[in-house]
Design a protein that fits this description.
The protein has 290 residues and is of the alpha+beta class. 42% of the residues lie in helices and 22% in strands. The longest helix has 31 residues.
């Protein structure tokens, strides 16, 4: 490399070393430790270029980029490299580090005039600076409005857009589900347990909506006890009790119902729903007339 390199403090300089590598030998240059010397640091990793290759003899150039943040003169230490020859021997090669001069920026104190620190300058706000805040405020207002409207509509049983939610009466829901179960032909396909489960679940939901009892959480016996105090036609009450008992046997005791019992299950449930609905209409009529 050059005998002496000069750079400004904080700048970088590339140090180049040329080495002749004999035919068949390998050039090995370990990355030096950082800092190379006190005050001089290696930037990145060494880079290698092959300058020439004549009859197998190569001339290799090793490039190191260094920097320094302290002004002064530095003597760089020799850098070790190795030549691994064909016969297995290893020669040590020392690359001359040379000198490095780091200079700082000179200030002409004769013409330099210091000034006081100026106060902080404030620029006027622009419309673009207010737009994000205005948009966020409008979004917050819209969100609050939507939440309030949703709460009001839920209380009034209306949808978000103000239309009243249409809820079918309990007897319509029950009769529609029973007709659906009839069309599934479950017991005809060997699914008796599912058949009676769907029938009784439909009746339990109807009883909850019609009489306000928690039928889904009660046993069949508990449901019958509660319904015994209701004004229900004795015949329909007896049929319902028998249907619930039969369903329990099929679901829990692995009882296999006969064809007649399976065919009568849905008609019994339909008669019970229609009977109690008609009774509800009569009670409402009496209240209006009274």
């Amino acid at each position: 490399m050059n005998v002496k390199d000069t750079l400004l403090i904080g700048d970088q300089v590339t140090l180049s070393f040329k080495t002749t590598v004999p035919k068949g030998a390998k050039f090995i240059f370990p990355t030096p430790e950082n800092p190379i010397t006190q005050g001089v640091e290696l930037v990145g990793v060494p880079r290698f270029d092959t300058l020439s290759n004549k009859d197998g003899v190569m001339e290799v150039q090793t490039n190191l980029t260094v920097t320094s943040f302290d002004s002064g003169s530095y003597v760089l230490p020799p850098l070790e490299a190795y030549l691994h020859k064909v016969d297995g021997s290893i020669d040590t090669v020392f690359l001359n580090g040379g000198n490095l001069e780091v200079k700082t920026i000179q200030i002409d104190t004769t013409s330099f005039k210091p000034y006081d620190i100026k106060g902080q300058m404030t620029a006027p706000y622009s419309v673009k600076e207010f737009l994000p805040w205005g948009g966020a405020l409008l979004l917050l207002v819209a969100l609050i409005y939507i939440i309030i409207r949703v709460i009001k509509n839920l209380r009034a049983k209306r949808s978000l857009f103000g239309r009243e939610t249409v809820v079918d009466p309990p007897h319509i829901v029950a009769l529609r589900n029973l007709e659906k179960i009839r069309g599934e032909k479950l017991w005809q396909n060997g699914q008796e347990k599912l058949y009676y489960t769907e029938i009784t679940d439909t009746l339990r939901l109807y009883l909850e909506d019609r009489f306000g009892i928690q039928a889904m959480e009660r046993t069949s016996g508990e449901i019958i006890e509660v319904l015994a105090n209701k004004k229900i036609d004795p015949k329909e009450f007896k049929e319902l009790k028998e249907l619930l008992g039969l369903s329990d046997l099929v679901k829990f005791a692995k009882y296999s119902a006969n064809v007649q019992e399976n065919e009568n299950a849905i008609p019994v449930a339909v008669r019970f729903v229609n009977s109690t609905y008609q009774q509800e209409l009569e009670e409402d009529k009496k209240v209006k007339e009274g």
